[in-house]
Design brief:
Elements: H1 8-29, H2 42-63, H3 68-98, H4 106-117, H5 138-154, H6 160-181, H7 193-215, H8 227-239, H9 246-266, H10 275-306, H11 310-346
Helix pairs in contact: 1-2, 1-8, 1-10, 1-11, 2-5, 2-7, 2-9, 3-5, 3-10, 3-11, 5-7, 6-7, 6-9, 7-9, 8-9, 10-11
């Protein structure tokens, strides 16, 4: 069954989730985490969406002989430039934060930088346990690239029964993990590599399954739901307060609701009035996710230094969000798109093996 390569509703939702993650990081940095108790679940939605899109774009091509090397070159060309930009901006802010304190360690910084730009999660900074201490959200990009590699290697062997087996095993692992930790807010530190692998494996493989169902025409009879309603549901999940049954809420959200939203979003496009907004949202989603942390850290410093409270504090939150979105747009239009045009213009057909 012919399928679309672009899904505007999903583009819109991806941007909405990126903005939600931005808000989550802002309020947690300034001590108002209760305003976005579950913003970290946005990463699991990203993983599911990625699995769906990757399956639509590459599943058949991998089955028909597209090589691992070719696939990974394509994916790294898409992901790495903005990854490197986000890391460079974050490293610069890290230097500015550490130098005045007299806590800057040159050898430690160089080692961590080399690891970071090589997408290696082993660059430690004293007192910081993040996989990527300069730009903490980059942890999910590490797992995204890792699961992409595993998927490309396994695609020809990943029959439906095997895919369902991976999905079931990772769902059980996720249930055990969340029951033990109390939430999905794990995977970004060096002591939680296994937990990060569980998060990406379930959501990504679930997305791949949905992509295959879409290509097989199995989702054509799904009910159509307004993209606005899907957006409201996502926001409600991110803003829902923590309760004594938090682990159940998060498991239901990640294991059931997020895949359902991807399915419903895939079969319903936004009205013409909202097409431009959905396209803009999709355009800024990845650059916003990977470049927002330096803006957040600078904003946090200003809030603390000026001791902002009340209206002034919330005004600063708004300014931070607008600034981060503007930076993301500039990164997309002035940095990422020219690089992608360069790759298209200079690349010869890649070998399939």
């Amino acid at each position: 069954m012919p399928v679309r390569q672009h899904y505007l509703t999903l583009d819109g939702l991806r941007g909405l989730v990126a903005i939600s993650v931005l808000f989550f990081h802002i309020v947690w940095q300034i001590g108002l985490g209760s305003l976005s108790p579950h913003g970290y679940l946005g990463v699991d939605f990203f993983f599911a969406l990625s699995g769906f899109v990757i399956a639509i774009a590459y599943d058949v091509r991998l089955q028909q002989g597209m090589g691992f090397k070719q696939f990974m070159i394509v994916r790294l060309r898409r992901l790495y430039p903005l990854f490197a930009l986000g890391m460079a901006l974050s490293a610069a802010v890290f230097i500015l934060r550490m130098l005045p304190k007299g806590e800057f360690n040159t050898s430690e910084f160089v080692f961590a930088s080399l690891n970071a730009f090589l997408i290696s999660p082993f660059g430690r900074v004293e007192g910081n346990d993040y996989l990527f201490p300069f730009n903490s959200p980059a942890w999910s990009l590490f797992f995204e690239i890792a699961i992409n590699a595993v998927y490309a290697l396994a695609a020809t062997y990943l029959t439906l029964p095997r895919l369902l087996g991976v999905l079931a095993a990772s769902a059980v692992a996720a249930i055990v993990m969340v029951t033990y930790h109390g939430s999905f807010d794990v995977g970004d530190s060096s002591s939680e590599l296994f937990e990060g692998a569980i998060r990406v494996t379930f959501s990504f493989s679930g997305g791949v399954l949905l992509g295959r169902l879409m290509m097989a025409g199995r989702l054509r009879n799904m009910p159509t739901v307004s993209p606005a309603l899907l957006s409201v549901v996502l926001l409600a999940i991110f803003l829902f307060p923590v309760t004594r049954f938090n682990f159940i809420f998060e498991l239901v959200s990640v294991l059931l609701v997020f895949p359902l939203i991807v399915m419903l979003g895939a079969v319903r496009e936004p009205s013409s009035r909202f097409e431009a907004l959905a396209k803009f949202s999709g355009l800024i989603s990845y650059p916003l996710y990977i470049t927002h942390m330096p803006v957040v850290l600078i904003s946090t410093y200003i809030c603390v230094r000026l001791k902002l409270e009340g209206i002034a504090l919330f005004t600063m939150i708004g300014i931070t969000m607008v600034t981060a979105i503007m930076l993301a747009y500039l990164a997309a239009v002035c940095f990422d798109e020219p690089i992608r045009r360069f790759f298209r213009a200079t690349s010869s057909p890649l070998p399939t093996s």
